[in-house]
Specification:
The chain is an alpha/beta fold and 293 residues long. The chain has helices at residues 52-56, 88-102, 115-126, 147-153, 158-168, 170-178, 186-199, 204-214, 244-254, 268-271, 273-292, and strands spanning 11-17, 20-27, 34-38, 61-64, 108-113, 131-137, 231-236, 257-261. It starts with 10 loop residues before the first strand and ends with a helix.
Length: 293
């Protein structure tokens, strides 16, 4: 039996944002730019275990668990009209608080995966960050919850029973969310198990019902164009969520460089971490060289 994979890659701490405790993981020294890692739906900082140590050899690396995932708090869904702790404003405020604490005011390269690419795009467009480049891995810029959850919570009465149903269906959700494309590796198996644990944490199911039933198409998609910073898109030929056609379209609209990887699904940084680590490192070095001219 293979040895269990340790998904911890950095020092763990917490940042308080409007009463919500955000779990943060950091590694590396003072190397610039800082790499800010933005995980995808139902994931967490653990998903970067295959690549973060490589980047930390030359750069400071900062990642955090976006609620309601990982080890961050799961605040209760708000009453109608109240500030939504899962909304866009809260997402940007969380990023500001984490990066102020752990990255200072220096230059950043944002690295997002799946739904985290929407967060990365929002942070670039929000301004106030010294973003020098963005890497979008398996971009899912619609940011919508997976179809499995949307279908479940669209059923009559789902808002009353959805949380309980999700708790019972964690094993199926793990397969749907982590194994898309049928590309199993020891690392993907380990992150899949961690995903299942995360989904079982108290408050996750209720938050997912809220996220799924309140989701609206982001307005930025209507006018998506170049972000104004160097941008790289990495995708998988076998990705069934961010399909090759959709990934090419994102790269074209952003005027980004594109890497489509053969025999790779929706989690390139977990399936082929060495290759993705190298591609991102080369991109970051090109950003540094460009900034130095």
């Amino acid at each position: 039996m293979p040895e269990p994979i340790d998904l911890g890659w950095g020092a763990r701490s917490h940042v308080d944002v409007d009463g919500v405790r955000i779990a943060v993981e950091t590694a590396g020294g003072a190397g610039r730019p800082v790499l800010a890692l933005l995980h995808g739906f139902a994931s967490g900082t653990f998903s970067w275990a295959g690549v973060a140590p490589t980047w930390a050899d030359r750069h400071r690396v900062v990642a955090w668990d976006r609620p309601p995932f990982g080890h961050s708090d799961r605040p209760a869904p708000p009453p109608r009209g109240a500030l939504d702790p899962y909304g866009v404003d809260a997402v940007v405020a969380t990023a500001r608080a984490v990066l102020d604490e752990h990255a200072g005011d220096g230059p950043l390269v944002l690295v997002g995966h799946s739904a985290g690419t929407l967060v990365a795009t929002q942070l670039v467009l929000a301004g106030g960050f010294d973003v020098r480049g963005a890497v979008l891995i398996a971009p899912a810029l619609a940011g919508e919850p997976p179809g499995l959850l949307r279908r479940l919570f669209a059923l009559p009465g789902a808002s009353a029973v959805g949380a309980a149903a999700l708790k019972l269906g964690v094993r199926g959700a793990r397969v749907a969310l982590r194994r898309v494309g049928q590309h199993g590796t020891p690392l993907i198996e380990a992150t899949g198990a961690e995903t299942a644990r995360s989904l079982r944490r108290p408050g996750t199911a209720e938050a997912l019902v809220h996220l799924t039933t309140t989701w609206e198409r982001p307005a930025l998609l209507d006018d998506l164009g170049p972000l104004g910073v160097p941008t790289s898109v990495i995708g998988g030929i076998d990705d069934r969520i961010s399909t090759p056609t959709a990934t090419r379209d994102v790269a074209d609209r952003l005027a980004a460089e594109l890497h489509l990887l053969e025999r790779v699904g929706h989690a390139p940084h977990e399936q082929v971490p060495g290759l993705v680590a190298s591609l991102v490192s080369e991109f970051v070095e090109s950003v540094v060289e460009e900034g130095g001219r």
